[in-house]
Amino acid sequence: MDRFEAIRLFTRIVELGSFSRAAEQLGITRAGATQAIQQLEARLGVRLLARTTRQVTPTPDGSDYYQRCSAILADLDDAEALFSQASRTPRGRLRVDLPGSLCRLVLMPALPDFCRRYPEIRIELSVSDRQIDPLREGVDCVLRIGALDDDLPLVARRLATLPLVTCASRSYLERCGRPQSLAQLQGHHAVDNLSATTSKAFAFEFMLAGQVERLHLPASVAVNDGGGYVAACCAGLGLIQVPLFHVARQLASGELEEVLPAHRPPAMPLHLLYAPNRQATARLRAFIDWAGELFARAPEQLAG
């Protein structure tokens, strides 16, 4: 293994915290990875990685070396892209992490267009609603709805601001009444939407005279999945608050009805995130531009 390959291996081990996962991504054996790092440490005369049974972390020298190596590799990738066919025809594997509802209802129906435009890009989607570190998880970019985690030093591009709606099934409203004010929510029930990180139910939010009013309604059912959350609402189990794209079809068909449209919750931002120490590759730049076009649509047009 030459010096640059060993450096690239070292940076992936630091980012993933694992010899095995880094070796798998780079298509080498774990034994080969171990030998390459031992040779790199011997050549430098310092220990770069601290190994335990559970994880691999950089030593202080390893952290300094990682920062230097990351910058060198980013510059090398950028230089090669400028002078290669890849700069004109994006190609290779692109790994994207995003919430399930966004994948199922928005990205997947539009993905054939991306594949037609960029036939040499293989796009791999991982679906999760939790905040992740793209470097440690081995993904190129992340799509996230809502407030960002300031602890992760990522480059963020805002793609859209998504309106939220409060809604309930027609059967529920016919049974329990259609509230015309916040005061008339007394006696109504909600479906609790549980946070993927804290497992606590999100409060309902309403805009009233320019201020955000938060309240918790009693709930018989709690869900930590976006699809299940909407399904519970369609089953008549209570009110929910979701991005408009998530229920656009049900609202259009009349299966669900918007409640208190004059007091919609505050809109939520949608960001695309990627690591700052990696220059955007041609394939990532292509996806960023395409996603920007996709989410520039009107909110009610996003669902399919």
TrEMBL record:
Keywords: DNA-binding, Transcription, Transcription regulation. Pfam families: HTH_1 (PF00126), LysR_substrate (PF03466). Residues 1-59 form the HTH lysR-type domain. It comes from the Bacteria. The keyword Transcription applies. GO terms for molecular function: DNA-binding transcription factor activity; sequence-specific DNA binding. GO terms for biological process: DNA-templated transcription. PANTHER family: HTH-TYPE TRANSCRIPTIONAL REGULATOR, LYSR FAMILY TRANSCRIPTIONAL REGULATOR. Belongs to the LysR transcriptional regulatory family. This is LysR family transcriptional regulator. The lineage of its organism: Bacteria, Pseudomonadati, Pseudomonadota, Betaproteobacteria, Burkholderiales.
